[in-house]
Amino acid sequence: MNTTPTHADGRREERDGIVTLVLERTFRAPARDVWAAVTEPERLVRWIGTWSGDPASGAVMFRMTAEGEDVAAEAVTIHECDPPRRLELTIANSDDAAAHWHLELDLAEAAGVTTLTFAQRLPDPALAKDVGPGWEYYLDRLVAAHAGDDVAAVAWPDYEGMATYYEPLFTDPS
After folding, report:
1. How far is CA 138 from CA 49, 97, 149, in A?
2. How far is 150 from 34, CA to CA, in rounded Å?
3. DSSP string of 67-118, one letter each residue
């Protein structure tokens, strides 16, 4: 697997009148397998973090393990969970009570290929210069983990330059 990203490929959309970052990744796998990679704690921890609690309650705690040992868990509210098709949730940032990340993950399977469409609402489009590269990085880690490759080979410094793609795309879309 080539772990050096060749380009940023996220796009800007408006959903319900809110600027939204949208990224896609494809997997040669059934949707139920990709669903497991983004929802089951033992698979999720391979590329981003883990959760605890009872998702049937509509809320869990999520902790990013790839950000270091001392990262605090964040409250997640599950708005929609329709396996293996759609997950919509909000993550409340514990460091900034005003920061809530509204995320949508949609899976579509056709001819043995599943497309994951990831979306994050960005009420402040200026956040795209940080959020865009961040999700490119994590979704590439998901692809590596799903393929059984070493996620450590997906190196954050390779993504930092993507801010120059995302910033004008979201702050000056003309």
Report:
1. 10, 23, 14
2. 17
3. T-TTPPPEEEEEEEEETTTEEEEEEE-TT-TT-EEEEEEEEEEETTEEEEEE
Instruction: Report which of 11, 37, 48 is spatially closest to residue 128, judged by C-alpha positions.
Output: 11
* Bridge partners, residue 110, by sequence: 113
Instruction: Give this prediction's pTM.
Output: 0.92
Tell me the backbone φ, ψ of residue 92, rounded to 5 degrees. Answer: -95, 120
Are 47 and 152 within 8 A, CB to CB?
A: no
CA distances for 22 relative to 52, 86, 103, 111, 151, angstroms: 27, 15, 10, 23, 22
- Rg over alpha carbons for the chain, rounded to the nearest Å, is 16
Rounded to 10°, the helix 128-147/163-171 angle is 130
Read off the pLDDT of residues 110-148 as tens digits, 9 standing for 90 and up: 999 999 999 999 989 999 999 999 999 999 999 999 999
Q: How many CA atoms lie within 13 A of 72 on its CB side?
A: 8
- How far is residue 136's CA from residue 7's CA, in Å, rounded to a whole number? 10
